Structure formats: C-alpha cells, structure tokens
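Fold this: 26s proteasome regulatory subunit rpn2, putative
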Amino acid sequence: MVAEMLLYCKTNALEVVDDRQFRSKVLELLIKIYKTVPAGRDRDWAGLAQCYFLLNKPEEVGTMLRELLDDHDKFGRLMAMQIAFDLADSEAQQFCQTVSACDDLKLSDGGDTGVTEGDVKMEKAEAPAGDKKKECIANIKKILAGDAQTDLNLEFLYRNSATDLLLLDAIKANQPDERNSITHNGIVLCHALMQCGTTSDTFLRANLEWLGKAVYWAK
C-alpha cells in the first residue's frame, strides 16, 4: 500500500505539478521516505534512482549502486545493473558519465599497506567476492557508456539472422549485364537490407572481384 502511494505521489509530481521548485521539494521528500525502508528487497531502488536522476544528483546514484554491490547479493547486483540500463535508456549522456566517474564506482588499487599474514589469509578468502564486485562495476560502467547495449543488439541480430545467401547468388547469376550499374547496385542494396545490423559481410567478401566491376553510382 505504501509503495503504491509513493508511486502515485511521484507520478503526480512529474505529470501534474508544473512548478519546478515545488516538484523538487516533493522529490526530496520522496527520497527521505524511500530511505526509511531498510536496505534490501523491500526498498524501491528504481524509484529512488529516478528521483536522484530528476534532481540531477549523479553522485548519490553512484553511492546507491555501490551500496547494492556491497551487499554481495545476487539481487543487489542485478538491481544495480537494471538501474544502470534505465539510466542509459534515459539518453542523459552527461549524467551517465558523471555516475560512471564517481568515487564510489572506482576500483581501489592494491598497494603495500603492511598487512599481516592473517590479513592475507582473510583477503584470499574474500577474493572471489571482491573479483565479483570488480566485474559488476566494470559491467555497470560498460552499460552506462552504452557499449553493453550495442554488443547485445549486435549479438541478437547476428544470432537471429535468417538471410538466404543463396538467394543473392541466384540474383547475381541471373544478372543480364555485370557492368549494368542499376542491376549491380540493386543486388548490393538487397544484401544491405538482408544483412542490416548483423555485421555479416560474407557475400561481399566472397564476391570482391564482382564488386570491383561496379560503375557510376553503384560504386
């Protein structure tokens, strides 16, 4: 019930309230209410991140992401990455860059700090958790930069590509004149449409000599 009331209040603050100063006060109050819920699955992390985003507070978002990662919990890692995806989808590049560069998402370099043998053993025991956290931070930075989305889109398009290269070969074989710019260019355009977004250039590499015969606009 409380979560629904908070969502209703946030929605009205964004869609109904016109005064920017009053809206900011409402969002600040919502942040305080969100934080009264103990950190864990019950807290609305996505709503809290949205309030920080609307108030242009990237440092607080970075602190929140680090808090999620410090829990050493699968839920925390997944929620942190989901928030990173949501921020990247907002297309606020400057905000995402600031979040990625904040101190809470920086990996500390290990140095000679005079640790004892017992500390070394403890560090070895905690190494898997530390490595997992570093990996998550690296993934979050990649998501905020937009690189992860690009890789996923390319992988999806390449894996689900069902183009028939034999069809292109058949069209090329029935081309009346290999030096005709219209038909030549038409086949190249067919390939471009069929392989759009898949990064597959198998047909072009297999027909480099044929491509070299292009004239005029087909070049």
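The two ends are 64 Å apart (CA to CA). The longest helix spans residues 117-145.
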